[in-house]
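Q: Fold this one first, please.
A: Sequence and structure below.
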Amino acid sequence: MKLNQVTLPVSNMEVATDFYRRMGFLQIVDTPHYSRFEYPDGEASFSLSLEEGKYINGCVIYFESNQLDKLVSDLKEKGFEFDQEPMDMQYLWREAIIHDPSGNKIKLYWAGKNRLDPPWRVERIV
């Protein structure tokens, strides 16, 4: 199995799609109620779904970049505001936090080998 995409709820499709295009994602589907984006590096995609009622999204979406600090700096130059500047975390990832216009939490991060092979990795066989 392979994770292909995650769908985020948004309250305003036009504002949301502009936000993600300005972040550097390639929009590959564009409808009034659904949009999909491709990540510039790799084969992953994610989508946006227009939600007209109240919703709570407790998910956090992660986008990895091996040039995290430069990415954050470039986005700040474009006017993006971050809730957390790039910071080394105790679990050996470096992360910055931003929210999209609909309130979805996004972590831009770099984990390197620690993403799949942290020092505390376990291997459980079913």
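Q: Good. Now the second chain.
A: Here it is, same layout.
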Amino acid sequence: MKETNFTIIVEFSLSGLTDRPDLRFILFPIFLAIYLFTLLGNSLLFITIKVDVRLHTPMYFFLSNLSFLDICYTSVTVPKMLETFLFDKTTISFSNCVTQMFCYLTLVATEVLLLAVMAYDRYVAICFPLRYQLIMSRKVCIQLAVAMWSMGFLDSVLHTTLTFQLPFCGSLKIDHYFCDIPPLLKLACVDTSVNQLVLMLAGCAMSLGSFLLTLISYTLIIATIVRMRSSEGKHKAFSTCASHLFTVTLFFGTIFFMYLRPSTSYTMKRDRVVSVFYTIIIPMLNPIIYSFRNKDVKGAMKKLLQTCLGLT
């Protein structure tokens, strides 16, 4: 497997979420249940939006993109985690590691941009209600979706290429439960300052840019809501934004903590736990957040389930 001082990579080894073998059989059913609930909840939300014509609006178009992202998100990382819990199989081939990291980074970057686009959509809907359909036309929505997926793809190509062109040596044990940039950089045999700089700059440009756009959108939204005379109008406007604002706070908070800080502050045991929130917990919560507080979605879901069960 080794030639000279460097390693011809055949496979890596993942440390998993926990170092304690006795916890694996306890964690397996917990994360399996979370994974199945995430798939079911997001699939139901996605299908409901697609089949109910009343939900064919820009807001729900982007929400269906979020549901699809969350399905893919968890499916990239959780199955391997479950395999590690159940069979103690910690190895992952080089090609699978590259694929996992590429898909994961594409989805992360796309979701960062999507949350900003969703905030902009709410800004237009509340601040320019009479021009909403014109500004957020179907053509514009599709263009925004293509743009954010394309930018997510390009961002992933950049980081994946820079990471896997590095020479790796040592034990090749990735101190994480999936292939991510920070733990892989720790395995490199050369200086990774360029990779860390690119990660910081690209993260700032995309994550902070999206966060600032979201912040500006909600600042203008709140200013508009405060000026509303109708208390019913205020309540309706706040209710349509509250779900998204909660998701934004959770997602951006953990993303900033993970990637927009010096590499010297990485503590892998702590970071593994933090990453669970945005890779597993938030995708599980999203269908709950966006459906339980939304009468239109709840009504459409109820109708869809009744139709599928033959109750109507």
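Q: Anything worth noting on the second one?
A: The first strand starts at residue 2 and ends at 3.
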